[in-house]
Design a protein that fits this description.
It is built from two helices and no strands. With 96 residues, it is mainly α. The longest helix has 38 residues.
């Protein structure tokens, strides 16, 4: 049992040291990201009174869009569709 416990302890220590190294790496990345964020922070959004707080591009329109146009049946013109000859009809016409 002592050898088994020693193996488990050694394996646990290896895994624990690997995890702590990864956490240190995450701390380094987190510090780099916070430094970068401090250098490149975005300016505050422009807020217009009586609008939502999304700024100019996200502001909701004051009026709804107009309804779609309604056409009378006389105004709707459909183009003629091309006539496709039937292959059976054309072959029987020339063979009489």
């Amino acid at each position: 049992m002592d050898k088994m416990e020693e193996r488990l302890r050694k394996l646990f220590d290896e895994k624990l040291s690997g995890i702590t190294e990864q956490l240190r790496g995450f701390d380094d990345v987190k510090q780099q990201l916070s430094d970068l964020d401090a250098k490149t922070h975005a300016p505050p959004k422009l807020i217009i009174p009586d609008r939502n707080a999304l700024g100019i591009m996200g502001a909701l329109p004051q009026f709804p869009p107009p309804p779609p146009p309604r056409y009378h049946s006389a105004q709707v013109i459909f183009p003629n569709s091309p006539v496709i000859p039937d292959s059976n009809a054309s072959s029987s016409v020339g063979k009489d």
